[in-house]
Automatic annotation (TrEMBL), chain A:
Positions of the RING-type domain: 197-411, 201-249
BP GO terms, sorted: protein ubiquitination
Protein name per the record: RBR-type E3 ubiquitin transferase
InterPro entries in alphabetical order: Ariadne, ARIH1-like_UBL, E3_UB_ligase_RBR, IBR_dom, TRIAD_supradom, Znf_C3HC4_RING-type, Znf_RING, Znf_RING/FYVE/PHD
Region entry Disordered, spans: 1-72
Automatic annotation (TrEMBL), chain B:
Sequence similarity: Belongs to the ubiquitin-conjugating enzyme family.
Enzyme class (EC, first level): transferase
Coiled coil (residue ranges): none
PROSITE patterns from the UniProt entry: UBC_1 (PS00183), UBC_2 (PS50127)
Protein name as annotated: Ubiquitin-conjugating enzyme E2 2
Enzyme Commission (EC) number: 2.3.2.23
Entry annotation: catalytic residues: C88
Gene3D superfamilies in UniProt: Ubiquitin Conjugating Enzyme (3.10.110.10)
InterPro entries, A to Z: Ub_conjugating_enzyme, UBC, UBQ-conjugating_AS, UBQ-conjugating_enzyme/RWD
């Protein structure tokens, strides 16, 4: 059973949005009109929206909080059908069109359309995963007329591909059973421990009377101590579970859970079942563990590996972690996985080095080797290509004639050419640094914002006692803080994305969106630094800015995701 | 010695002495019963015929749950044995079974000498030569056997 789905969440919030939607929309429209004039006016106009919210204050404070959320969703809602592909660069105009139509958009509200950057997914708890496995095992067991233990082994063998298993099984039952490591007579012999007289264990060479022994149907019999030790090592040290073979030499029979339960202590069977669960999730392409530390949930998402160049499947776990289903890294929308990988690699290799290179070195005008001048005169001889040149003007040394050690030859042709070439290679470095610095800055700021978030909790408590607001009423701080985190995460990746983006008309829109979001984020971020006693008075403004940030983020993500899906972006690297 | 030697190792050692495998000898050190000096004769009909290869064999603490560690001491020209004498053999790695023994493992190694497998190489250069010019490779292996693997 799904624990939570994105769709459901949207459903519930939309429902509550309907209650307050009409007056709010009118006001949004008004503020929108003002927005177009200038940015400062836009800010002045923005508080208009939440005034409806505050006027609702007489109502249940719970509703009040909900409407904050719903107004955010409303923003998403409206942008869902905004068409950026048409080529208009003014986003706000599009929004206004949308507003006009908003009054008769009830049908759309009832069935919210998924945004381009959203994917469908489900979050499963360990219990869900277990029951999922059990259902499948029971289903197939019934069909194949095999006990569930054997069916489980068969299913694990085919990596939970039911269709393939059934097909192969029907095709050649014996071969399938053998391949999966099952004997044929699993039905008859329940596993049991026996004492055999005159038996010598091949592993420990013990042969005392009363020695307890065990063997699966393959009849490779060993004493239970050795069997236990063997299984313990496989499970504990090697982390194996689904594919533990009989300890007999060359035997491919797979140990089943029933035999295992008989032989090893409880804590080990727990671990065994845990590992089985892990292989189940690992074996299925549509399932992934949440990468957050200590998180026990798994997420199911239908996005295939081959589609990752067209979509960035960000999913949200129950534990609040947002991660990319494609590569399990933290949410990196709008940047596709391949570019993220490239970017991270590049940054690891390059960033600091590039900075240093830019500041301290020049390239040989002939072979482009990077050279650091650590002393001596301006007469350089490249160690690689033996080219002799002047460090000052980068021109050929031979042209310097008698003016050695005193370069005054800036107008010389060879020098100008060399400097041009150099400038070009520097330019690519500068370009990278431009994007890297912004990327790193948002990463850093997000970290700082996180610190602030921890302080926020204290501020919220303080605010309660000083302004007499209730706990629910101060939630806007948390909402703002979370919005900030989310937006910075997005912004950060827009810069990695932009680095690989080849310029065309779409990139103009993209950069506008990026700029808008950045401005919104910085505005909101600034408010956090205000002293606590002012915060109560800023509540309305803050809520408004939070909403605005989230809306800008949705607009940006929707635009990039749509273009990614339609492959209208051009990249200056191949998406591989 | 802190821990007494497991019965399994004692029995195996005894049997190696009382019923030695033809062409193979394994003798434990006096001061360390887990450390063996091993000599393996090159199998008849192979390019290692006539050679005697010495190896070292060590039984780790969790033997027989873990495979013994074995290494060639004599230099050998073989696609599955590298310059340090390490051996690429499935039963020494993931196909190890605690039911296997020193003698069975040494027999497997002898068999590996008789049937080099350049498709699963440890020593890339040798394996390449083996695939591209087998006659030349076998000739080199013979030469090395004569040069390095003679009984002292």
């Amino acid at each position: 059973m799904p624990i939570a789905t994105r769709k459901r969440k949207a459903d519930s919030t939309t429902a509550s949005a309907d209650a307050t939607s009409e007056p709010q929309r009118k006001l949004t429209k008004v503020s929108k009109a003002l927005q177009k004039d200038s940015i400062s006016q836009e800010q002045a106009a923005l508080p208009a929206t939440p005034q409806t919210l505050t006027s609702d204050k007489g109502m249940d404070s719970d509703d009040d909080f909900n409407s904050v959320a719903s107004s955010m969703d409303l923003g998403e809602e409206m942008s869902s059908s905004v068409d950026f592909g048409a080529g208009e660069s003014d986003v706000d105009i599009d929004d206004d069109y949308q507003d006009d139509g908003a009054f008769d958009a009830t049908a759309k509200d009832l069935a919210p359309k998924r945004k381009h950057f959203e994917v469908e997914f489900k979050v499963y708890s360990p219990q869900d995963i277990q029951s999922q496995q059990d259902t499948q095992i029971a289903e197939v067991a019934n069909l194949l007329e095999q006990p569930s233990e054997a069916t489980a082994i068969l299913l694990r063998h085919t990596r939970w591909n039911k269709e393939r298993l059934i097909e192969q099984y029907m095709d050649n039952q014996e071969q399938m059973l053998d391949k999966a490591g099952l004997g044929q007579e699993i039905n008859q012999n329940p596993p049991r421990v026996v004492v055999k007289n005159g038996f010598t264990c091949d592993i420990c060479c013990e042969d005392g009377p009363g020695l307890e022994t065990f063997a699966m149907n393959c009849n490779h019999r060993f004493c239970t101590d050795c069997y236990r030790q063997y299984l313990t090592q496989k499970i504990k040290d090697e982390g194996e579970a689904a594919r533990i073979k009989c300890p007999g030499d060359g035997c491919r029979k797979i140990i089943d859970a029933k035999s295992l339960d008989l032989l090893v202590p409880n804590e080990l069977t727990d671990r065994y079942h845990q590992l089985l669960m892990r292989t189940y999730v690992d074996d299925k392409e549509s399932l992934k563990w949440c990468p957050a530390p200590n998180c026990v949930y798994a997420v199911e998402c239908g996005v295939k590996k081959r589609d990752l160049n067209k979509i960035v499947p960000t999913v949200h776990c129950e534990c609040k972690q947002s991660f990319c289903f494609g590569c399990t890294l933290p949410d990196h929308q709008p940047c596709p996985c391949v570019l993220v990988k490239r970017w991270i690699k590049k940054c690891e290799d390059d960033s600091e080095t590039a900075n240093w290179i830019s500041a301290n070195t020049k390239e040989c005008p002939k072979c482009n080797s990077t050279i650091e001048k650590n002393g001596g005169c301006n007469h350089m001889t490249c160690r690689k290509c033996k080219n002799e040149f002047c460090w000052m003007c980068m021109g050929l040394w031979s042209e310097h004639g008698t003016s050695w050690y005193n370069c005054n030859r800036f107008e010389e042709r060879s020098g100008t050419d060399a400097r041009d070439a150099q400038a070009k290679s520097r330019q690519s470095l500068e370009r990278y640094l431009h994007y890297y610095n912004r990327y790193a800055n948002h990463e850093q700021s997000a970290r700082l914002d996180k610190d602030i978030f921890h302080k926020t909790e204290r501020k919220m408590t303080l605010l309660q006692s000083t302004s007499g607001m209730s706990w629910i009423e101060v939630q806007f701080m948390e909402a703002a803080s979370q919005a900030l985190q989310q937006c910075r995460q997005t912004l950060k990746w827009t810069y990695a994305f932009a680095y690989y983006l080849a310029r065309n008309n779409q990139t103009e829109i993209f950069e506008d969106n990026q700029k808008d979001l950045e401005m919104a984020v910085e505005n909101l971020s600034e408010m956090f630094e205000k002293p606590t006693d002012q915060l109560a008075g800023l509540k309305v403004e803050m809520m408004d800015k939070t909403t605005y940030c989230m809306r800008r983020r949705v607009i940006l993500l929707d635009d990039t995701a749509k273009n990614l899906k339609e492959e209208t972006w051009k990249f200056n690297v191949e998406l591989r | 010695m802190t821990t007494p030697l497991p019965k399994r190792i004692i029995k195996e050692t005894e049997r190696l002495q009382s019923e030695p495998v033809p062409g193979i000898s394994a003798v434990p050190h006096d001061d360390n019963a887990r450390y063996f000096d091993v000599n393996v004769e090159g199998p008849g009909g192979s390019c290692y015929e006539g050679g005697v290869f010495s190896l070292e064999l060590f039984l780790p603490d969790d033997y027989p749950m873990c495979p013994p560690r074995i290494r060639f001491l004599t230099r050998i020209y073989h696609p599955n044995i590298d310059r340090l004498g390490r051996i690429c053999l499935d039963v020494l790695k993931n196909n190890w079974s605690p039911a296997l023994q020193i003698r069975t493992i040494l027999l497997s190694i002898q068999a590996l000498l008789g049937a080099p497998n350049p498709e699963d190489p440890l020593n890339e250069a040798v394996a390449k030569q083996w695939k591209e010019n087998q006659a030349e490779a076998i000739k080199t292996a013979r030469e090395w056997t004569e040069k390095f693997a003679q009984k002292k």
